[in-house]
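@channel sequence for tomorrow's demo:
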Amino acid sequence: MRTSKNTFLIVLAFFSIYVIWGSTYLLNKIAVTELPPFMLAAVRFITAGIMILVSCRLMGIAIAITKKQLWNTVIAGFLFLTFGNGVVVWALKYVDTGLAALEISAQPLVVLILMLIFQGKRIQPMSIVGVFLGVIGIYLLVSQKQILSQENSVLGMIMIFCCMVSWGYGSLFVGKADLPKNYFVNTGYQMFAGGIMLIALSLAFNEPWSSPVEWSPKVLYTMILLIVFGSIVAFTSFNYLLQMVSPEKVATSTYVNPIIALLLGWYFLNEQITLQSIIAAAVLLTGVYFINTKKKLTLFSRFGKLPSKRYKE
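structure tokens (generated this afternoon):
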């Protein structure tokens, strides 16, 4: 029987993946107004990766990994963080937070198509309906006049879609790759490797770097929130929930995150929520629901393999 302590932790964990992950769009949007996007992401993930690995050492968790595991964490770090997240942060310079979150909510659609292409997985009838609705929803989202008229907004939406493909392929890759068994160690190495590659990307684009002492208090506090809560607390909660409740319940974050992002962007940044955006959100999330009725577990392995033991009822 689940104890009251476990129930309380589960509620807190759901709050984390609902609200914190939904708020990271707003936090990144605020930070990217003053900091170069690739530098921002690099500092966030390197700092979080070091904090996780140091914490593992302090808790007595071995952080030694094999060369093959190290290489695989580098690949996963690139797919998930260097490209998959770093380019999203760049795109937020030109795309509203709510629109970005809504587009990314179609991630299960991308994973489903990639599974068909690379693994030959048959798409179930309910999922076909979901794909159809997802395509319509994305079209409704990106075809709005205010998006087409904004400078580089279409490019931003296209790059976000490319990031979704990177995340999707990464999900398939980690499902079979030899990675560190401990989630914290796995995440720490991926974040550190992804951050190092983001530094290279930042230098390649000649981004100006600055010291934290030069940042405004708003950006400094935002970065702390992204590192501590967005990169560590929320992901730890995500892995905890995968072991404690069914994947279907964890998947509900797919529906909640875009709503949180839309509301926060509207309230704090005065971003406009149009009727077409609301319709697009309804169509997209309905499509995601149909897809998730026949989902694969790889949809949820963002940073590593799912735990082998069954979740507790």
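heads up for whoever presents: The longest helix spans residues 4-32.
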